[in-house]
Amino acid sequence: MRPVSATATASAMALVVARGAATRRCFTSSLVSRHASQQPPSSSSLPAKLPPQPPNARQFKPHLNYRYIRDNVSALQENCVNRNALDVDVAKVAALYDSFVAADYELGELRRWRNAVAVEMASLVGQAKKDMGAKGADTDVSIGSRRKVLAEQGRNLKASIAKHESLVADLQSRLYEEARHIPNDTHPQSPIGDESNATVLSTTGTPRGPTFPSGAPLRSHMDIMLAHDMVDFDRAGKVAGSSFYYLRNMGAMLEMALCRFAMDTCIAEGFTPVVAPDVIRHEVLEACGFNPRSEDPQTYYIAPHDPAAAETTGTQRDPLQLCLTATAEFPLAAAHANETLPRASLPLKSVASSHAFRAEGLAGAANRGLYRVHQFTKIEMFALTPRGGDTSAAVLADMVRIQRHMYAALGLCFRELDMPTHDLGAPAFRKIDIEAWMPGRGSWGEISSASDCTDFQSRRLNIRTFSSAPRPPVQARDADAAAKQPQQAMAAEFVHTVNGTACAVPRLIIAILETHQTEDGNVRVPEALRPYLWGLDTIRAGIGLADLVREQQLRAKNE
């Protein structure tokens, strides 16, 4: 191996120093200018700072498209405004990315310089040994002097590289922390604005009026459930507080029937049944696109065993801190994190049963009863699809078709809405909601939602597939010819994710009871649920569940 000349090493050193100085000047001045106008909040108003978690310290390996962000600052900022993400600064993300790239390049140059020094040092050591063997005397004085210079350079480079590695890691953490708040792109047909701008795509059925034929007013679901001993909020309040409840008797059986009906429907459509965890790590919540910048009012967090791990600012939490999931979408999405899936396995469709926990509650008559509660059972559809808007859009349309089929089978009046930008959240590219008419409330109420999230979640969870299938095995006699042929590309790409509610139990119970109530206090059972309720066609007032079941069994036996 030829030794690296001192001149070459010095030239490399000068190049790195010059580039490094320019980078540091640019980066430092940009930091000063950005922070000079920002007055820090009072230290007494903030809890102890928790340092940002670097992406490489997380369980999952996020791969955000920073180059795309840098090249589309104006369009992405406009999209943020349309989606009411007013605290997102896309230009800041682009500037951080440029600083990160420059610092990472400088670090690479320092490492190359270190390697050049190591190569020259090894060459000099080899030359010294060779000279000693040939002359039987000490090595040349010039070689020894040069080795001292290289040793000093090596020590300096080691310290400089350590500092630059720290700088690069810090920039990478700050870059991800800012970029993760940028919402997904938006479907061109999604209306812009708040919920009032939603587009009604279709309506099934006719809303029931507020009165019975006699003119008597319809009952609310709470009046019906209390009359039939289906629910108990008071005793649940003693156990867990407000907005928790016990479902009893036919209320409990309605939940089980709805869950089985939804699961059976989805299984018949090719979905794999899953019972998902109710507890997830905060990292999963974050990767799926739930990114509040202030204290999170909607999530129940579980205190960790290590009290130090619970330290938080308003925006930063330990990625491994546990919380109760708000939907099975999150554990289903994270199940394949850090995996590269065979393309032939896609779309990968699952339907999960889990509890959903929502800490935030709203008071008022509109939210009375089961409409807005802290815990409920939910059946969720989820799919991983190959990359491509047409593919994930087709799966979204299929989920909405399944939803329409189920709600029509339950005899509900409902409408399908293309949701506007303010209601998309961070991950959704397009979102379709279904609202049922709830006669006792006298208004529409959301019973399901379906979203195409494209690669927003898969980039944060690092879920990929191959863009093309591998070549088939080559027979032995064709091996030589095959070796001369160019190999087929096997580039990995991020999958798309799609989710949709199959059954949110409390809202469906409200819609069913209020829609199918009769003036004599009974409730007609939708035909689709009868196989799961002993064949009952009516929930009759004044008869206990056990007596109702025995009566139905005798009737079935006689028939």
What does this structure look like?
Its EC number is 6.1.1.11. It is an enzyme of class 6 (ligase). InterPro entries: aa-tRNA-synt_IIb, aa-tRNA-synth_II, aa-tRNA-synth_II/BPL/LPL, Ser-tRNA-ligase_type_1, Ser-tRNA-synth_1_N, SerRS_1_N_sf, tRNA-bd_arm. This is serine--tRNA ligase. GO terms for molecular function: ATP binding; serine-tRNA ligase activity. The protein is an alpha+beta fold and 559 residues long. The chain folds into 2 domains: 6-32 and 49-179, no CATH class; 195-304 and 318-469 and 487-558, Bira Bifunctional Protein, Domain 2 (BirA Bifunctional Protein, domain 2), CATH 3.30.930. The protein is 42% helix and 16% strand. It has 15 helices and 17 strands. The chain has helices at residues 6-36, 66-71, 73-82, 90-135, 141-179, 221-227, 233-240, 249-268, 282-287, 329-334, 389-409, 456-461, 479-483, 505-516, 545-558; strands at residues 199-204, 231-232, 246-247, 272-275, 279-281, 322-324, 339-341, 348-357, 375-385, 414-418, 430-438, 443-452, 463-466, 492-494, 496-504, 523-524, 538-539. The chain has an 8-stranded mixed beta sheet. It has a 3-stranded mixed beta sheet with strand order 7-13-14. Helix 4 (90-135) runs antiparallel to helix 5 and helix 8 (249-268) crosses helix 14 (505-516). The N and C termini lie far apart (96 Å). 34% of the residues are buried.
